[in-house]
Structure formats: C-alpha cells, structure tokens
Amino acid sequence: MSSTSVTFRSSNRLDAFDLQLLDLLQADALMTAEKLADHVALSASAITRRVRRMRETGVIRADVAVLAREFTDARLNALVLVQAREHAEERGIAALRALLTATPEVQTVLDISGEYDLALQISARDMNDFNALTDRLLQSNPTVQRYETRFVKRTHKQSLFIPMAADAD
C-alpha cells in the first residue's frame, strides 16, 4: 500500500485502507466487516471502527438500495439543459437550484459550462407527468430563459461508483 492519504473535511485523513474499504462498500454496502477483511489487510474490528468513523464524519453519506433496471425501465427519463436569463440574480439561480434539488423526480442537478447553465436528469412516470413537472419547475420560473430536453432511449450504464483506491496509487 502507498502512504498516500486523502483529506476530507480538513480534519479527516483517509489512508489507502480507507479508500479500499470505500470501493468495496460502494459495490456492496451490506458487506460485513468479516467479508471486508477478506479483501483488506485489517482485522474485522479495525474495519468496523474505520467504517463507523467514515459514517460519523460524513465520508459515507448514505446506504441506498439500487433498483433493478427492469423495474424502472417503464419510466420516462430525460436530460434537460437549462439556460438562465442573462441578468438573473444569483439568489434567483440559487432558489432554482434549491427547488430542483428538493424535487424527487430530479435525479441530478449539475452546474455546467457553455451555452447552458444547468444540466438535469429527470425521471418521470410518463409524458404527462414530465410535462406537468417541467411546467411547474421550469416553464413558469422567471429565472429560466429556456430549456431543451433529450429523452433517454436506452441506458447502458448507470453508476454512482467513484473509484477511490486508485487515488492511493
């Protein structure tokens, strides 16, 4: 293992063992400390302490269930590019971001460079639901100049995995 470490929230240092654990837990958050010890050269009790610390300090924010694609394929998924008005006040854009992040159907909100200001990933029940959602969130919002939608035909990969152990090399 390399002696490289990563700093999180300035006071929390993550070493190569922590990064290995994060990779494994991203693949299976239900993996026991004993099973993790089969892959990381630490005792189960040391792993338990490390994982607890990473949860308490916010390095691990949540353990979630990832739904099978076959279960969610019937939903209408869209990528939406949003352009703010040229002279929109920052508080208006901040309010728009807050509205979007508080909406469960909006899966992702990204600030982007270029002609558009935001990129959204939206999952709606159907076209009627999508139209009602975009009318409420975007069409009637004074901060929004315009928006364009690209509907997803097929998903080939969708992942939240971020390779961390490679950062220790």
Helix content: 25-40%
The main pleated sheet reads as: 4 strands, antiparallel
The proportion of residues in beta strands is 15-25%
Strand order of the largest sheet: 4-5-3-6
Number of strands: 6
Question: Which terms summarize this structure?
Answer:
169 residues, four-stranded antiparallel beta sheet
What does this structure look like?
With 169 residues, this protein is α+β, with helices and mostly antiparallel strands. The protein has six helices and six strands; from the N terminus they run E-E-H-H-H-H-E-H-E-E-H-E. It has helices at 16-27, 33-37, 44-56, 69-72, 90-101, 127-139, and strands at 6-8, 12-14, 76-84, 106-111, 118-124, 144-151. The longest helix is centred in the first third of the chain and has 13 residues, at 44-56. The N and C termini lie close together (8 Å). The relative contact order is 0.18. Mean pLDDT is 90; it is low at 1-5.
How are the SSEs placed, and which strands pair?
Elements: E1 6-8, E2 12-14, H1 16-27, H2 33-37, H3 44-56, H4 69-72, E3 76-84, H5 90-101, E4 106-111, E5 118-124, H6 127-139, E6 144-151
Antiparallel strand pairs: 1-2, 3-5, 3-6, 4-5
Provide a concise account of the structure shown.
The protein is an alpha+beta fold.
